[in-house]
Amino acid sequence: MSLIYDSLRAFAAGAACCVLYAATAYSVEARITIHNFSFKGDTITVPLGTTVVWENDDDIPHNIVATDGEFRSSALDTEDKFSFTFNKAGTFDYFCSLHSFMKGQVVVAP
Q1: What is the pLDDT of residues 15-26, one digit of tens each?
Q2: pTM of the predicted model as reported, rounded to 2 decimal places
Q3: Which residues contact 45 (CB under 8 A, 6 or more apart)?
Q4: Between β-strands 90-96 and 65-66, what pairing exists: parallel, antiparallel or unpaired?
Q5: Is the torsion defined by CA of 4, 6, 12, 17 positive or negative?
Q6: Which parts of the chain have pLDDT scores under 70?
Q7: What φ, ψ does residue 54 adopt, rounded to 5°?
Q8: Cβ(66)–Cβ(92) under 8 Å?
Q9: How far apart are the C-alpha atoms of 79 and 21, rounded to whole Å?
């Protein structure tokens, strides 16, 4: 009986390990830097489930606003970050509402 119990326990531990690995193996992050009044990497294509991180590298505040209202950051001071995870495919246009000429786009592939 002990051999069966030990085998089941080993199997369960191995299965849990694989489930945890699978959940983290596909975690993707992309970065966009705000510098000199522009989004560096203004158009990026990412896989579904990607977390995009914007970081302000300018000396003045900026924000990130999706044109469809899907996401909106507060004003980001120098070195502040904002992130959003894209869980649906599509094209997401965004801009800085403090400087409306600053525009970017995230394309999420299925």
Answers
A1: 444 444 444 446
A2: 0.75
A3: 106, 107, 108, 109
A4: antiparallel
A5: negative
A6: 1-26
A7: -100, 135
A8: yes
A9: 31
